[in-house]
Amino acid sequence: MTLVNIGFGNLVSKDRLVAIVSPDSAPVKRMVQETRERGLLIDATYGRKTASVFVMDSGHVILSALPPEKFGAEAENTEGSGRI
Questions:
Q1: pLDDT, tens digit (0-9, with 9 covering 90-100), for 1-31
Q2: pTM of the predicted protein model
Q3: In Å, how far are 11, 30, 43, 58 from 53, measured between CA atoms?
Q4: What is the DSSP string of the chain?
Q5: Distance in Å from the first CA to the final CA of the chain
Q6: CA pseudo-torsion sign 73, 71, 52, 5
Q7: CA nearest neighbour of 64 among 53, 75, 79
Q8: Rounded to 5 degrees, what angle do the CA atoms 31, 33, 38 make?
């Protein structure tokens, strides 16, 4: 199991991750609100502004204060490391 650091010492399983998106669009804002109402929202921002939204295969949505670009660089480094 590969873990991705989403900031402030919080980790998410890369295997369960469906998407990392920016929180700015109306559909993403709506998805976050609906997930909050269903009790499946995890806020890992520590009170800071949300910069990225993680969509998990379990239906959970996780908010992070780190920008999505940071996670793209991590994924590229992991894939290029020779591990399969």
A1: 899 999 999 999 999 999 999 999 999 999 9
A2: 0.84
A3: 14, 12, 10, 14
A4: --EEEEETTEEEEGGGEEEEE-TTSHHHHHHHHHHHHHT-EEEESTTSPP-EEEEETTS-EEEESS-HHHHHHHHHHHHTTT--
A5: 12
A6: negative
A7: 53
A8: 95
